[in-house]
Amino acid sequence: MSRRHLWIALALTIGVVPARAETIEVTIDRLVFSPATVEAKVGDTIEWVNNDVFAHTATVKGEWEVMIPPKAKAGLVLKTVEAVDYFCRFHPNMKGRLTVTP
Amino acid sequence: MFTRHIAALATVLLMGTAPLAQAADKPTDPQIAHIAYTAGTIDIEAAKLAIKTSKTKEVVNFAKDMERDHEAVNKQALDLVKKLKVTPEDNATSQALSAAAKEERAKLAKLEGAAFDKAYIENEVAYHKQVNGALETVLIPSAQNAELKSLLETGLKIFQGHEQHAEHVAGMLK
Question: Is residue A34 part of a domain?
Fold first, then answer.
């Protein structure tokens, strides 16, 4: 391997080994996100666990949306540093907040 | 006496007037179950009409959401009354609700296009508001069985969500 390739490999290794990514669970029970507020890091996964018989979404207006079918789970890998309020598009009275740090 | 209170409840449901005072004679659990189920069925029928009639994506999608959620609530209600061995009991409020809904559907059936969309969504906002008022002031406080009360409370949250959703769709149509 050339010296240049070594440098690239090294750079990639350093870049790719941050703290271990976590999966953070948010349960939905009777139209409530719990916990309502989540703090996470880039690379973590949010997993919504829907215990309701109703379909829900986790929606950030104009940005992203995760569909969460009844009695099912849905995940989102966090790729962006952001602090956002999300809600369920079908039941906008369901609200959550997500803060993603580097 | 009882009939009068049921009539007053019907007035609250239909007119959306001031909350009914906490009456001594409250609807019974079998009547509450019947009223809640009827209220859900009415919205499912309105949704079916909208899915068939509307050409607007947002309106059709909203109607499909209503159909899906209310069918899910009503299925839970049926499962619960079966479990509790309660037979839903028809009553003046359910009958008044059904009569008003029939009238509303007849009105909607004559409309099409933007006029239909507007009338359907505005009625959805008003209807959910009325049912929420009845749930909060009469049905939930009157329910004796804890599981029925809990189902009604979940129903209230669903209906409140629908009211906001309907308001949002109404805003998009303007």
Answer: yes
Under an 8 A CB cutoff, do B65 and A90 touch? Answer: yes
| DSSP H or E stretch at residue A38 | strand A37-41
Per-residue pLDDT, A9: 60
- Which one of B5-14, B18-27, B58-67 scores highest in mean pLDDT? B58-67
Closest Cβ–Cβ partner in B65, B72, B157 for A31: B157
Where do we find the tokens 């139209």? A31
* B28 CB-side CA count, 13 A: 11
Please give the pLDDT value at position B17.
39
pLDDT at B130: 94
Confirm whether A11 is domain-assigned: no
Q: Report chain B residues touching chain A, CB-CB < 8 A.
A: 65, 68-69, 72, 75-76, 153-154, 157-158, 160-162, 164-165, 168
Q: What is the pLDDT of residue B142?
A: 96
In a domain, A64, yes or no: yes
Q: Which residues pair with A64 in a beta bridge?
A: A60
Domain count, chain A: 1
Q: Which of A36, A82, A81, A30 is nearest to A58 (CA)?
A: A36
Strand partners for A68 = A56
Whether the ipTM is more than 0.85: the answer is no
Residues of A in contact with B168 (CB under 8 A): 92
All structural domains of chain B, each given as residue ranges with its CATH number in brackets, are 2-12+25-173 (1.20.1260.10)
Indicate the DSSP class of residue B145: S
Give the CATH number, domain containing residue A87: 2.60.40.420
